[in-house]
Amino acid sequence: MMALRHGIRLNRMVARQCLSLRFQSSVATTNRDEPKTSKRDFFSVVSQGPSLKMKDLSNALYFASRDGIRLNEEESDSYLTALLKFTEEEFGPEEISNVLLASRSILPSYTVKKFPDSLSLIRKKVDACKSAYHIDFVQRAFHGIEGLQAKHVDVFDITTLLSLRVVEAKAKSTGEVISAVLSSLKAYDAKSIEVRILLNTIAPKLRTLTVDMSSDEVAKAFYGLQNMDAAQDEVRLVTRLLTPYLINCREHFDAEHLGLMFMYLCNKSSDVVEVERVVRALIPVVRDCYQDLDTAEVVQIIQGLQNMKSSNAQVAQLLAMITIKVNATTKKLAREPIVNALTLWKNMDEASQEVGAFRAMINQKAV
């Protein structure tokens, strides 16, 4: 059981790391010849005292985050002391996104003495800011949030408030924005009024999208719904509106995208009509995936099927396609994590042809 839990945590961590790497590559647009920011540069800004302007601190935070600066406890205290002086000043989207990015990137841990006070300050600034967020600022902000403790009340408030601000501030949201917002909700269920309001706000934006979503945007959007009850009205609505973008996506999904899509399924039941439609849409997606699957991705797929019923015709077809896809991989598959993941299956009839074929293939393929 410990090995199984470790495997589940490991695969979720792998998915988070993949998303993190994609973000990092998207912001690494600086000229390679440009000198990197040093701690000395950073603290030459932070130590300006009463003359320090928030715009200057914001820029310093961005470059410190970009260039991999990490502060120790004493240095973090100095930075947070400077930040907390701006209680009365308005923050724009750039300042908010850079502070959130730095909260993840440059602080040594979230046990720094003044960190809770900084979260409270950020929450107030997010609530007060009504300006539109450029997609770069959206990505920075949510990348920062992803590294915070999701269950902390201020982090929850920051996530939901920021998501609402980002969506409400755009007459026509892009796939990038919707994907970033939904992905930020991955740690939350839909029991809170804040998340339900947010989902209801996103729904009309999905209706008015004028362009297709990329495979990356679709996968991240579904991934954000992973802990939500698919039978809940708001979740059903967003799932129903997202599914056409999955069906009509012109890009092939890579192995990482498959992992994210199946993480969406892992807490869902195939008895829900909207989930069944996603299952049906995934059959050609799995077939057309252009990459071989590795052990971690096979485990994610198995975990995604844990609440599915093999008696459902769409689930049976999807499992048959997965069997073909996994059998075709040229990568070495580790038996133990795969067999452990299979113990999660609750509604798969061992007597069914598709389940039997999958298990037989695993017995031959995994070593």
Characteristics:
elongated, 18 helices, disordered N terminus, mainly alpha, 0% strand, 367 residues
What report would you give on this structure?
By secondary structure, this protein is mostly helical. It has a domain at 1-19 and 254-367. The chain has helices at residues 2-27, 39-46, 54-66, 73-83, 93-105, 115-128, 135-146, 153-168, 175-183, 193-207, 215-223, 233-248, 255-265, 273-288, 295-304, 313-328, 335-342, 353-365. The protein is elongated, with a radius of gyration of 22 Å.
Spatial extent as radius of gyration: 22 Å
Tell me how many strands there are: 0
**Mean of all residue-level pLDDT scores:** 86
Global shape: elongated
Distance between the termini: 20 Å
Specify the structural class: mainly alpha
Major pleated sheet = none
Tally of separate helices: 18
Low-confidence stretches: 1-32
Task: Give helix and strand order, one letter per element, not per position.
Answer: HHHHHHHHHHHHHHHHHH
Helix-strand layout with pairing:
Layout: H1 2-27, H2 39-46, H3 54-66, H4 73-83, H5 93-105, H6 115-128, H7 135-146, H8 153-168, H9 175-183, H10 193-207, H11 215-223, H12 233-248, H13 255-265, H14 273-288, H15 295-304, H16 313-328, H17 335-342, H18 353-365
Helix pairs in contact: 1-7, 1-15, 2-3, 3-5, 5-7, 6-8, 7-9, 8-10, 9-11, 10-12, 11-12, 11-13, 12-14, 13-15, 14-16, 15-17, 16-18
